[in-house]
Design goal:
By secondary structure, the chain is an alpha/beta fold. It has helices spanning 29-32, 66-69, 79-92, 109-118, 134-141, 157-162, 169-179, 199-213, 233-240, 249-257, 273-286; strands spanning 2-5, 8-11, 40-42, 45-51, 54-55, 75-76, 97-100, 123-127, 145-153, 185-192, 219-225. A seven-stranded mixed β-sheet has the order 3-4-7-8-9-10-11. The longest helix is centred in the last third of the chain and has 15 residues, at 199-213. Bound molecules: iron/sulfur cluster.
C-alpha cells in the first residue's frame, strides 16, 4: 500500500497475508438499514448476498491477482465462523441465497462438504474444473447449491499451459459432462485476448463452447477479455508485446470505460473486431 501526504510519497512494506482470518468480520451493521440496496440477482434468485468461506488460492494462474495479492496462500474460515455469518445475514434481511466469492472454496474438502451440506439456504460458488469429480457432484447435488461458476478460461490446451492454469481442456469437458442436466445453473467462464494468443487458439475456445453447449440446458457461458494486472506472471509478457499500461488510477478507470481496447494477441486487430464478432457469435449460441 502506498500513499501521498503533503507531497511525500510513502510505500509501505509488503506484508504477509492475514492468517487468523476469523478475527476479521464484515461490519454488517453498516449496510443493515439499507440492505435492499445490496441484494443482487444470481441465476433467477433475486435477494442474494455475498460471503467468503476462505481467502486466497494456492494456484498461480498467470492472469490472476492472487499470486501477488495473497502470495498463493489459501486460508479457510472455521465452520463456526461461516455458520455465524450466515445466521447474521439471515437476521438482517430476507435473503434468498448466498454467493460465496472465495477465490477457491474447496481446498479443505472435508470441512467444505460438511458446511455446504449444513447450510440451509441456496448457495452459489466459483470452482476450478479439475475440482469437479463424480464424488463432488454427488454430494453437491444433495445440497442447496443453485449456481456454479466454472473457471474454464480457454479451449486451447496451449493457452491453458501458457497461462499456467494447471488444468486440461479434458478436465473442462469432464466437469461439464458431470454437471450437465443437474438442477444447478453452471456458467463456464472463458477469457480471450491473452498475450500471444492466436486466432486458432480462440477458434478452439469457440469450438469447445459449441461442443459443451450441446444438450446441456443448465449450462451457459461468459466471455471476458484478458485484463493485465501488475504483479501477475503475464504482466511482463503483456508489456513485451508493446502494451503501455495506464499510470494513474484515472487512466485505469478510462481503460475500463473504453472496453479494454488493446491487442496483445497474435490476431490482427485491424481484425480486432474478430474477437468481438466472435463474441457475438457466442451470444447467439447462448440465446
Ligand atoms: S484463477 Fe482461480 S485457480 Fe487460478 S489463481 Fe486465481 S483464484 Fe486460483
Amino acid at each position: 500500500m502506498g500513499f501521498k501526504k503533503n507531497s511525500i510519497i510513502t510505500i509501505n512494506k509488503t506484508i504477509t497475508p492475514l492468517r487468523e482470518i476469523d478475527r476479521y468480520k464484515p461490519d454488517w451493521d453498516i449496510i443493515k438499514s439499507n440492505i435492499d440496496k445490496y441484494y443482487f440477482q444470481v441465476s433467477g434468485i433475486s435477494r442474494v448476498l455475498p460471503l467468503l468461506s476462505s481467502r486466497g488460492c494456492p494456484y498461480n494462474c498467470g492472469f490472476c491477482y492472487n499470486n501477488y495479492f495473497n502470495k498463493s496462500e489459501w486460508r479457510g474460515h472455521s465452520k463456526e465462523y461461516i455458520y455465524e455469518q450466515i445466521d447474521v445475514l439471515k437476521k438482517i434481511g430476507k435473503i434468498s441465497g448466498i454467493r460465496f466469492f472465495d477465490d477457491i472454496p474447496f481446498c479443505n474438502l472435508e470441512q467444505a462438504e460438511k458446511v455446504f451440506t449444513d447450510i440451509d439456504i441456496p448457495w452459489g460458488v466459483g470452482i476450478r474444473p479439475n475440482q469437479i469429480t463424480e464424488e463432488f457432484v454427488q454430494w453437491v447435488k444433495k445440497t442447496k447449491c443453485f449456481y456454479i461458476f466454472l473457471g474454464a478460461e480457454s479451449g486451447s490446451q496451449s493457452v491453458l499451459n501458457k497461462i499456467d492454469k494447471k488444468c486440461s481442456v479434458d478436465a473442462v469437458k469432464r466437469a461439464v459432462s458431470l454437471l450437465k442436466n443437474s438442477n444447478i445453473h453452471v456458467r463456464a467462464g472463458f477469457l480471450i485476448g491473452f498475450p500471444g494468443e492466436t486466432k486458432e487458439d480462440i477458434d478452439e475456445t469457440f469450438n469447445l463452447i459449441q461442443q459443451i453447449d450441446k444438450g446441456a440446458d443448465n449450462i451457459d457461458f461468459s466471455i471476458t477479455k484478458y485484463i493485465p494486472y501488475p504483479g501477475t506472471s503475464l504482466w511482463q509478457k503483456t508489456l513485451e508485446r508493446g502494451w503501455e499500461p495506464p499510470v494513474t488510477t484515472q487512466e485505469w478507470g478510462d481503460l475500463m470505460k473504453s472496453g479494454f481496447n488493446y491487442n496483445v494477441t497474435e490476431c490482427d486487430y485491424s481484425d480486432i473486431n474478430y474477437i468481438f464478432e466472435a463474441c457475438n457469435k457466442i451470444i447467439n449460441i447462448i440465446i
